Amino acid sequence: MAQDDNGGKDSVSSGQHVSHDALGASPGTAVIVRDAVQDPGLPPHRPRTTDINPKAEKRAERVVYTLFYLSLAGSIFAIAAYIAFPIIEGDSGSVRLNNMFVGLGMTLALLGLGVGAVHWGKALMHDHEGIDIRHPQPGTTEERAAAINVIDEANRESGFGRRTMIRNSLLGALIVFPLPAVVLFRGLAPMDQDPVALLKHTMWEKGTRLTHDPSGVPIKASDLTLGSSVQVIPEGLAELEHHKIEEKAKAAVLLMRLDPKDLNPLPGRETWAYDGIVAYSKVCTHVGCPVALYEQQKHHLLCPCHQSQFDVTNNCEVIFGPAKRALPQLPITVDSEGYLIAQSDFTEPVGPSFWERA
After folding, report:
1. CATH topology for the 198-357 domain
2. Phi, psi (degrees; rounded to nearest 5) at 80
3. Is the pTM for the entire model greater than 0.70?
4. Residue 206: its pLDDT value, please?
């Protein structure tokens, strides 16, 4: 590098002149300017065997839809195995057989879908390299129209609309795939009882005392101060040996004390609270998460899972979030000793609503 007549610039091998001041270097310091790395571009496209050989293309197509049909068969086999090899209480051999055959069916269902989708993408879908330009959001009308064109183009390139055997086998496999999970979840409930009836009733009944969770100590109305919030369970739940978790999941209640003047009970529920003390199910009516946060000043209950909010002063009606119905209220009063007791069970189902439609 040689200094030129300007005294503040250096000449580089390419003949370019760069100011020391512009680069932040002091005069007399050697400055090296390197050319930017050139974009080498994309390598030449290499066609696949399925692109140039129609027989190979048809063979790959057969492999893909065969794998999807195997997935469908695996899902059906898992359901059949669950029924054919029931788990018998006290028989460890029945557990092994059930797990083995149900697991084999679900493995075949998963592998068929996964391997079939990968082979479809690698052997049959459009494989030319492309560039997607990111645009600011939201897009203009023209950009949205272009997005629709991209979807249409993806349909043409993947052959989803054209390759009917692949499409139909994939749809069939996807429709049947969730059924083993449905059957397995149904098996969690006692097989000799209606699960809907089990969910409609809890341990609460007339005269059942409200007790602290988890100690089971009964609660007097005088124990609660204005603005307090307590999680309670029915008396006797703490001593249960079997199905304790299941019963608690249905019967958990939040107990709060407000100024009686702040409550706006629905017609017919004027006697469901006692001196400003109200009790509501702790199970969110969205998907069953525990409603755990009480905003004392606003009298709001918050579900931390999906942010549903309920107004305690107005019968725990939904004021925000995805929940669609109010939290069920437990009618309460006090007994002769001043302990809080239930007047009855909940008059409506607790928890999410979807199981009622089973």
Report:
1. Rieske Iron-sulfur Protein (2.102.10)
2. -60, -40
3. no
4. 94
